[in-house]
Amino acid sequence: MSDAVAPAIPQPDTVDNAIATPDKHQPYDALGLKADEYQQIREILGRRPTSGELAMYSVMWSEHCSYKSSKVHLRQFGQKVSDEMREHLMVGMGENAGVVDIGEGWAVTFKIESHNHPSYIEPFQGAATGVGGIVRDIISMGARPVAVMDALRFGAIDHPDTARVLPGVVSGISFYGNCLGLPNIGGETWFDPVYQANPLVNALAVGALRHEDLHLANARGVGNKVVLFGARTGGDGIGGASILASDTFSEGGPTKRPAVQVGDPFAEKVLIECCLELYREGLVEGIQDLGAAGISCATSELASNGDGGMVIDLDAVLLRDPSLTAEEILMSESQERMMAVVEPSKLDAFLAVTAKWDVETSVLGEVTDTGRLVIHWRGEKIVDVDPRTVAVDGPVYNRPMQRPEWLDALNADSARALPRASDDSELRAQALRVLGGPNQADASLITNQYDYYVIGNTALAMPDDAGMIRIDEESGLGVALATDANGRYCQLDPYAGAQLALAEAYRNVAATGANPRAVSDCLNFGSPENPEVMWQFARAVEGLADGCLELGIPVTGGNVSFYNQTGDVPIHPTPVVAVMGVIDHVDRRLPSGWQDEGENLYLLGVTRDELDGSAWAGVVHEHLGGVPPRVDLAAEKNLAGLMAAAAEEGLVTSAHDLSDGGLIATLAEGVLRFGVGARVWLTELMERDGIDATAALFAESGARMLVSVAREDDVKFRGLCEGRLVTVTRIGVTDGEIDGLDVQDRFTLSHAELAAAHRHTLPERFGAVVGG
Amino acid sequence: MPTIVVEVMPKAELLDPAGKAVAGAIHRLGENRITDVRLGKRFELHVDGEVDDALLDTARQLAADLLSNGVIEDVVSVHVADDAHASTGA
Question: What Gene Ontology molecular function terms does this protein carry (chain B) (predicted)?
Answer without folding.
Answer: ATP binding; phosphoribosylformylglycinamidine synthase activity
